[in-house]
Each structure stands twice: as C-alpha cells, then as structure tokens.
Amino acid sequence: MNTYLRCLWIAGLLAVVGCEPNTGGFDYAPVSGTVTVNGRPLEGATVAFAPQGESLNTGRPSLAQTDADGHFQLQTVNGIDGAVIGRHLVAITTKRLDPETQDVVARETIPVRYNAQSELSFDVPKEGSTSANFDLTLK
C-alpha cells in the first residue's frame, strides 16, 4: 500500500472514530414501545425517559415521537440510540411549543400524572427492550 493510500485509510478511520457520539461513560440499550390512550394509539406524543440514580450525573435523557400507531424508538439528543441502562422517570406529553416564540401550538390532551407530575417509570435492561408500552387512561 503506498503512502498516499495509507494516509487516506488512516484519515478515514479517524473520521469514523471521531464521529461516534459521546456516551459520557454510561451504557445504553435500545428501547422502543407503544403509547396508547384507553387502548388506542397516541400519535404525535413526545416520550421522554430521564435516568434516575443516586448521583447528580445519571446520564442523558432520551426522547422519541410516537407515530400513527403510537410506536416510538428512543434516542438521546446527541444521537445515541436507546436509553441509559437502569431506572427512568417517564413523561409523555402532547403539548407543543413553537421553538422560536415558545408559544403553545398544541395543548396538552393527557393528564398531568403522565407528564408534568409523571407517575410513570421504566427499567431499561442491559439487553434493551421492545416492550416499553404505556396504556394511559383519561379517567
């Protein structure tokens, strides 16, 4: 392999390694699931998983948007698929804010016990989960 090709190969390898998202020393696992309200899929909701723990630094939260079937796949804001392994506080909201003005563009349609005062939690196992399912009720 000539010097030019060797340098090009090394530069490509470094670029790929440099593009890896920073995990902050935490282990992540893939998480997906479905959100329903009274048994019906909830489309367009934001699902947020916030890691819980003893220390102040528990890892980055993970977010997802539900599709027409209520299905979601979590990802951190810096592009890591999944969520930190361990216990999470879960919030689900339909409220939308305009990113520039912070005006409400879609109001909350589900009870505060699922978002601002969430009672939901989920334990992310090492192997991940495809069954992070939440059936909300409007009672």
TrEMBL record:
Superkingdom of the organism of origin: Bacteria
Gene Ontology molecular function, alphabetical: carboxypeptidase activity
Record's keyword terms, sorted: Carboxypeptidase, Hydrolase, Protease
Name of the molecule in the record: Carboxypeptidase-like regulatory domain-containing protein
Biological classification of the source: Bacteria, Pseudomonadati, Planctomycetota, Planctomycetia, Pirellulales
